[in-house]
Design goal:
heterodimer; A: 8-stranded antiparallel β-sheet; 3-stranded antiparallel β-sheet; 8 helices; B: 2 helices; about 45% helix; about 10% strand
Chain lengths: ~280, ~70
């Protein structure tokens, strides 16, 4: 299987399988989504909407649909995977593409609280001072849409998000490999996108309850969802919930694997069950 | 007199036929038209399904892909 690689959304995208035409279509899809949803492209639609906080604006259908998905994700995760954390990310110092971030002597700013968002068809309204960050769902949605462009078995991986058509053996962070029978895998954690501000470590997983980078006993959480969106939301929620993460995902039947900073692995019951049932089927 | 009787009878038959047609002909709406929409309960069930599980199994082949952390 030949891999096609390119950079988009601040990470390396890998496409396994597919034809050259499909590779081009997938590249175009990621670059188009970047142009719409990047906080670091000044003329992106997201920045236009954020600049219009305090009044109603018309947005593209793609933007409105994605925002609705992000609000549903917030609903289903009890407000943990929340789209109105843009200002909190900026307060933590995540103000430019991660590859360009340098240690900053300025102390973190005061984080704002999460805020309701008005969406009526293609009409969007934010309260003054509210800044959207849709990264919680944009990358995983792009991966799902990209894998749908493949005409045969293959996979699309973007940072910690991976979706596959057909069964695929995947190496997880930390070295363990699993067979992805159906759906997608996503890993969220604070070991990669982290930086220093006033000597304190900051990272991109904001806890909306505090508006600050989350404190979690886990370094990484890998979840397996029916699609990449589900896996990514589950992994983020599992990380942000801390000790409650494994049980919360078990209640929803989502297999997940929790890794601590010292490398100890805690699979939840759904992960163990998925592994056991797969063995029983052989 | 006969003309009047025929006239009234004709009007009554026409009216009865119209009412009958309205209630029996498939193309006539029998109640005010409403937009087609899925029942609210169905919509709420579908919405709840955003978090659906995939399936993982023990690896039985060398890795064909790797994931990072995001």
């Amino acid at each position: 299987m030949s891999d096609h690689r390119f950079e988009a959304m601040g990470c390396e995208i890998v496409v396994g399988g597919g034809t050259p035409v499909e590779h081009l279509a997938i590249e175009r899809l990621f670059h188009e989504r970047d142009l719409v949803f990047s906080r670091f492209i000044p003329k992106s639609e997201l920045n236009g909407v954020n600049a219009s906080a305090g009044r109603l604006v018309f947005v593209s259908q793609l933007f409105a649909d994605t925002l609705r998905v992000a609000l549903r994700a917030a609903d289903e995760t009890e407000g943990l995977v929340e789209p109105t954390i843009g200002a909190a990310l900026e307060a933590a110092g995540y103000t430019r593409d991660f590859s360009l971030l340098a240690p900053d002597p300025q102390p973190p700013g005061r984080p704002p609280a999460a805020s309701p968002v008005l969406v009526l068809g293609r009409l969007v309204g934010l309260r003054p001072g509210v800044t959207l960050d849709l990264n919680g769902v944009v990358k995983s949605l792009a991966v799902d849409d990209a894998v749908a462009l493949l005409s045969d078995d293959g996979f699309v991986s973007a940072g910690g998000d991976l979706a596959a058509r057909g069964e695929l053996t995947v190496e997880l962070p930390g070295g363990e490999a699993v067979s992805l029978r159906r759906g997608a895998l996503a890993t969220s954690g604070n070991t990669e996108r982290r930086w220093l501000r006033a000597g304190r470590v900051q990272h991109h997983l904001i806890d909306p309850r505090t508006g600050l980078p989350a404190t979690s006993p886990w370094a990484q959480v890998t979840a397996c969802g029916a699609n990449c969106l589900a896996a990514d939301i589950a992994a983020k929620a599992g990380f942000l919930l801390g000790e409650r993460g494994p049980d919360w995902l078990d209640e929803r039947g989502i297999p997940a694997r929790f890794l601590t900073g010292d490398g100890a692995v805690t699979p939840n019951s759904a992960w163990r069950r998925s592994m056991r049932e797969a063995l029983a089927c052989i | 007199m006969a003309k009047a009787v025929f006239g009234i009878a004709g009007a009554l038959i026409f009216g009865a036929a119209m009412v009958f047609a309205r209630h029996s002909y498939a193309g006539h709406p029998k109640r005010p038209a409403t937009a087609l929409a899925a029942p609210a309960r169905f919509v709420s069930i579908v919405r709840r399904d955003l978090l659906q599980a995939g399936i993982v199994a023990p690896a039985h082949a060398p890795p064909g892909a790797a994931t990072a952390v995001s």
